[in-house]
Design goal:
119 residues, mainly alpha, single chain
Length: 119
């Protein structure tokens, strides 16, 4: 399967609730870290949740969604390694992506094409 092809909505349906729950946990971990930047374990949890989401999306061959999850994971890793000078902007971008990905998955399950440009 390549970018833009329709997907099997049934395959995504099997795991979508779990993906959304994992994204919710990633969002909660990010929120906890933003409230207490000294608690880097929360940011590590966020990275782990994103890694799990990315792997699932890759197995489903949802490459556009997987690319977004990978970029989010890389940004969290850069935050952990203190390589992001504008941290507040990074938090905002991460939070926006964590909120947009479930909507994108809903669109895919409804028969939409996997078009990364939509994200």
């Amino acid at each position: 399967m390549s970018f833009g092809e329709g997907i099997d909505p049934g395959a995504l349906g099997w795991v979508r609730a779990e993906l959304e729950e994992t994204l919710k946990q990633a969002r909660q971990a990010l929120e906890a870290y933003v409230e207490d930047p000294g608690d880097t374990a929360q940011l590590q949890f966020c990275a782990s949740y994103l890694h799990q989401v990315r792997g699932t999306l890759q197995m489903l061959e949802l490459y556009g969604a997987a690319m977004l999850a990978e970029e989010m994971e890389r940004l969290v890793q850069a935050l952990l390694e203190d390589r992001v000078p504008q941290r507040e902007d990074a938090y905002e971008v991460l939070m926006r992506a964590l909120l947009q990905l479930p909507d994108y998955l809903e669109r895919l399950q409804a028969g939409g094409r996997d078009l990364p440009v939509v994200l």
